[in-house]
Design goal:
CATH topology of the largest domain: MetI-like fold
CATH superfamily of the largest domain: MetI-like
Helix content: over 70%
Distance between the termini: 66 Å
Number of helices: 15
Mean pLDDT: 84
Number of domains: 2
Low-confidence stretches: 1-16
CATH architecture of the largest domain: Orthogonal Bundle
Shape: flat
Amino acid sequence: MDATQTSPVLVEGGRLRGKSATGAIRLNEVLRGSTLYLVCLVVTFITIFPFLWMLSTSFKLPTEATKYPPEFWPNPITFQNYPGLFRYADVFPFHRFILHSTYIALVVTVGRTFFSALAGFAFARLRFPGADIAFGILMIAFLMPPAITMIPLYTLYQQIGWLDTHWPLIVPGVLSTSFGTFLMRQFFKTIPGELVEAARTDGAGWFRIFWVIMVPLSKPALAALAIFSFQATWNDFYTPFLFINSIEMQTLQVGLRAYAWQFKEETLQMAGGVLALLPVMALYFSLQKYFVQGITLTGIKG
């Protein structure tokens, strides 16, 4: 009788104790999640604040940009800085800077993506003597600092007449596929080999397998590689600064720096910086879904 009477109490007590423990765990999870979100918000704000300040300054008058103490919001808001970038077109052809950077970045992005995918497919699916050695040499080339090759390249370009042209930016950019080959090789290894074997059984050649099967399935990795390639080429400062001498042939990054040296107008510099960021941001946001997926999947299989 005593055991029958005390059993519900024990069960109820056990249930109460279980609820208390579950509540404490949930509270800890909420606090941990809130702390993580707060840290992420702080880091995000610190990261994007320079861009927000640049954007704000691009809409200020020159007198407002140098005011002390500085003010974040432009007062009044002016749009004259953006057309003002083209004010000195005879000396600094800003429209040419944009045109040069755009077509160089597009050509390099398309070419590097294609050749990287082709080489990555070969290393992932083809079996040929010395494949591992060749891939190791390719990785060594990827890890080699660019400064080591600058003097030999400058001498070579001088001898073949490529200095002060866009060829030193386009040809090496298209053919520098070390990172892209590694990225695409990792992704192609995640695609089931049965697809390749079935296509081979049906009589498909290797290039047809690559173009018809592999390329459509590798959109995430191709998008990630395209973003990396476009961003690296568009923001490249050192290569055009070293190999191009005339201001008429320069790209946007070097042109902006030369503009800053010559005119010292901070508001115009900030407007030029905003314009230089827009293409990369537009490409990233348009391919963001594929980009994240591609970065995730390329690390699944070694």
